[in-house]
């Protein structure tokens, strides 16, 4: 059973935070047009068998043979990255002429243009009910490796890494680089802040206090590119890390064109757990980033905490809101309340007098812009109303003036009151500090991206959810713009904040079970996730309706249970190679799978439904029965028996065979089948349910989704 997780954390162990870094190299071909623009490409090549396992320096020399010139006319290197661990190839700046010439070279496999990726941001340990701490990610150029205090650097790390820092904190410029970086790159304040908060809140400092952290810079002032992310993954795998956390995404992309999916597959082959942000494109369906099955895709939920404010109308009605700026000097008497539908965005107040008033706003602009406009027009406060899509998700903001933010339902009531001059509308805004134990919680945040999985609809994504709304995290500069070293924490939201929670929990599981595969860790997190909130009722979405599996994944992570799941669904790299071959053929397999001799004709091909995943997605036609096979491994007690329990609406009929599984020893494997068919004519939407394997000690839950899902490939 899981006991005091931190006591297990003496393992040499690292959580990786990808954020910013990269060098730059490009090429020029004799005879090409000098005026032709350069574009960065990620180039997959197949080294000759005699150098396939050569050193990184030898591989780089061979990669350079594909370039007619190594520097530009300005002296800038053309070769940006030379990959050796997660990808056979390099990143370089090429003209179209040069690319066309390169494609004729022996060993060339494929090239795809570099694409931009985006940072996924817009009391947690206690809420998760475990002795965990978390960290976030991102960092400046040449980020230092941040290690938790009082623990030695793991032997697996290169000796060139700096010694452990006195405490978990944001890396500062000038530390050792964990990977090369583009020569002219600088770091924007937003990228560095993302790095710092990700490292502080997500990765080891809070969720796994004894984890060692290696921080890799993969973003710069100009943004984040997938060639840099791939280089970060390459460096992390080379350094021997155990967990990689990636709070970046760029929308849905075929896996054989997705640098994160490609690099993460190589990490998976080496037993490294990779967790990725689901994206912040919600609440719309099919809006996910990071959809490949070999990593954990993380959605964002709220915690049971509110930065409480109250809107007290003069008619006696009181509405609960939120505000980061909990002012102590506030009006003691009601203040006139103003609303004008023509000025509801609160950035322009022509012919609308708000002098000395509190104004009601339905904004589309950032808090800073609203606060500046209201104060300039003479207003003393603001009531912000969420738009309908945001629902009850309130992203706490600091407006630097008297403020409260309300849900659309409460906001409509305030607007109705303020719009009727007969009410002589007046209001008081008061504050109650930080309130814990709020309900419902957790709730899926409106911005958290949703399934179905666009690239492979038969693979449920996101996998799981974790706290990502209004999360306290370290900040690289003082939020009050001071310089005395105080106030270096901020409140941030996004799936970027949720991802490191899972990374830290994966770290704890690996410390308890160092021999577990990456798939086993993922299975444990998914099958033990909570389907109900703290009130015992189903987890809700931003509209306070029951959250679908496409919103919350299997549920909300439960760290304590995840360390002792009872059964796991394990899967090896060869199974994924069969899936890759079935979807992308030899061409795609040669890009994703680094193995020199991969050939789809020699691989048992597998569909998505044949993968031994802990979730089940079925698409039976009318009058058809779909049979799905799964294998579980006993990691609980010997001499244990599990019984199958299925709950699903009557529109679907599910049979499990055999209905019981008996295990004599730990490590024993058992296979079962799930037969799915429609008992009523298929509905237009989807039907959701659960399969539970129940023993005296454990409940192993797999989410089930049944619908009409068509594979894209």
From TrEMBL:
Residues 339-410 form the PA domain. One of its GO terms (biological process) is proteolysis. Residues 610-706 form the Subtilisin-like protease fibronectin type-III domain. Residues 207-537 form the Peptidase S8/S53 domain. Residues 162-193 are annotated as: Disordered. Residues 40-120 form the Inhibitor I9 domain. Keywords: Hydrolase, Protease, Serine protease, Signal. Residues 1-26 form the signal peptide. GO terms for molecular function: serine-type endopeptidase activity. The keyword Protease applies. Residues 176-193 have a biased composition (Low complexity). InterPro entries: PA_domain, Peptidase_S8/S53_dom, Peptidase_S8/S53_dom_sf, Peptidase_S8_Ser-AS, S8pro/Inhibitor_I9, S8pro/Inhibitor_I9_sf, SBT, Subtilisin-like_FN3. Belongs to the peptidase S8 family. This is Subtilisin-like protease SBT1.7.
